[in-house]
Design brief:
The chain has 243 residues and is mainly alpha-helical. The protein has 11 helices and 2 strands. α1 packs across α3 and α5 packs across α8. It is elongated, with a radius of gyration of 23 Å.
Length: 243
């Protein structure tokens, strides 16, 4: 019953907003929402109620939300990706758990800072990875200082040391470069899909580029990521072998 009332309220509010903007419901040629049952439901959803008023308002799943779901499936499809994002999340959790730890981070990382990983907007994770991608040495220095400043706190010292070593590993470095490149391409498409001035022809062209990007990923893009990771290994002055 609650779901039905919610759908009715949303559809009525939507119609009121359209009227306030001098937009006629009869002129709607299509509608798209996320995967919420109160929006997409074929029996009681908002899309169903709008189609009762205008049968021509065909429904399709939100392209931006579908892109997010695709990203989610990719990131959960193999263990190394899962491990990579766990490390990124642990980094945020460690530094955000107290003002003292936060200060140590900000004293070393001046431009970008570690961010929480969103579970619903996967394309926004580029912000979390960007911080590490371009300020990795500073973050590792902050971890080292955190380790030194927590004398008898075994857990904090253990977490700091573990993350310090993880950020300097070959596997994390390559994963960081790869995911940053992937999110950069996908985030651009996502922003275009959400733009108020979206042009269909330009969007289709960008989606075509994204598809060709992934087709080339195994051969060309991966080699490029590997070379970037090798350069970062030298820039970060890591002692561990890159292999």
């Amino acid at each position: 019953m609650t779901l039905i009332i919610s759908c009715v309220n949303i559809s009525i509010k939507l119609q009121n907003v359209l009227k306030a903007l001098n937009l006629d419901v009869d002129d709607i040629s299509g509608q798209c929402y996320d995967n919420g049952s109160n929006m997409k439901g074929k029996h009681q959803g908002v899309q169903k109620r709008l189609r009762e008023i205008n049968p021509r308002a065909s429904y399709m799943h939100c392209a931006c939300h579908s892109l997010n779901l695709t990203l989610c499936d990719i990131a959960h499809s193999f263990s190394r990706a899962i491990s990579f994002f766990i490390i990124v999340q642990r980094l945020y959790t460690l530094f955000s758990s107290s003002t003292k730890r936060r200060k140590i981070l900000l004293d070393n990382v001046s431009e970008l800072t570690v961010k929480y990983l969103s579970n619903t907007r996967w394309e926004s994770r580029i912000k979390s990875i960007k911080t590490i991608r371009f300020q990795g040495p500073q973050i590792r220095l902050a971890l080292s200082m955190l380790y030194d400043s927590y004398g008898n706190d075994a857990k904090t010292k253990s977490d700091a040391e573990s993350l310090y070593n993880a950020l300097g590993s070959y596997e994390f470095l390559l994963g960081m470069v790869m995911w940053y490149e992937i999110f950069f391409v996908i985030n651009k498409i996502s922003m275009t899909l959400q733009s108020k001035s979206m042009c269909i022809s330009v969007t289709i062209e960008q989606i075509g580029y994204m598809l060709s990007y992934f087709v080339k990923f195994t051969d060309e893009i991966f080699i490029s990521c590997l070379n970037i990771a090798k350069i970062l290994h030298l820039i970060w002055m890591l002692n561990s072998p890159f292999q």
